[in-house]
Amino acid sequence: MKQSRPPLIRMYAIDEQLRAERYPNCTSLAGYFEVSAKSIQRDISYMRDQMGAPIAFDSRRNGYYYEQDWQFLPSMFFDNGEAEALKATRQVLAEYHGTPYYEEVSHALDKVLQFLPERITGDSFFSVYSFERSLVSGHREEYYALLDDAIRNHLKVRIEYDAPSTGQRTDRVLHPRRLYYAQGSWYLIAWCELRCAYRAFVVRRIQHAVLSDDHFVPDDRFSPDDYIDSMFLQHPGEESHHIRIRFSAHQARWIRERTWHRTQDIEECQDGGLILSMQVSALHAVRSWVMQYGAEAEVLEPEELRTMVQDEIMRMQEKYEKK
Length: 323
Fold this sequence. Notes:
Order of helices and strands: HHHEEHHHHEEEEEHEHEEHEH
Shape: elongated
Number of helices: 11
Low-confidence stretches: 1-5
Mean pLDDT: 83
Distance between the termini: 86 Å
Number of strands: 11
Largest sheet: 5 strands, antiparallel
Radius of gyration: 29 Å
Helix content: 25-40%
Strand content: 15-25%
């Protein structure tokens, strides 16, 4: 029993039977695909009238056939704009070489692109649009397959990791839960046996990785999506905090233009400024972010973050007061 399939898939199958000179008819094809004979008739009419397929009906054999050689090409389903976009996608995809599923996506795209006319290059697309270059750097291709396997099969992984906070290389055993891409870097969300907590590891900082035969039982109470949502600018933290930052009227116009966090809320002020609120865990990341706005921003809550900013300002002041 065949499942009902999209028209394009049916047309591929019809083309195969016509090439094999099996002389299919609407009744036999309808039974094969479990659709109505009218659906098959529409497919054949489309192939003949819109795609120019030389399909004819042989009354003696009670079936359809090709009157002459003809090639069924996917490119017939794309207009020039769509074809240009596909060609351009192939060039953009090249920037992600070595990342998860690059080979699978690349090969699938190449199968379609081989049927597009050579005159379509994608150049006109790039005369209008540009994309950030060199988004990916320092990736070890073999680690993605290993981590993918570990996540799917709940296998522990032993790694050597260059921790940016300490500058030291540590050995860790992880329970991998999710690979997460953001702002040019891949992160691994995993339970760390060394820290007895969930952590986000930058994949390019993994110096060595070995897949273990030991399984772990995933904690159903942990949600990778919630963990990612609590991060700020890809930085995780230990505890979630309610953040409130007041921006001046001058800076507020740019703050309104972007979504800084999925939990954010904006309260408009009478003087044209605004108060940005969000629920995040990485106070150190928020401190670094808010300080780039200087006197145009003021931390209102929590008090811990406000103190962190004040301490940083004092350290900066000491540096600039030195003679």
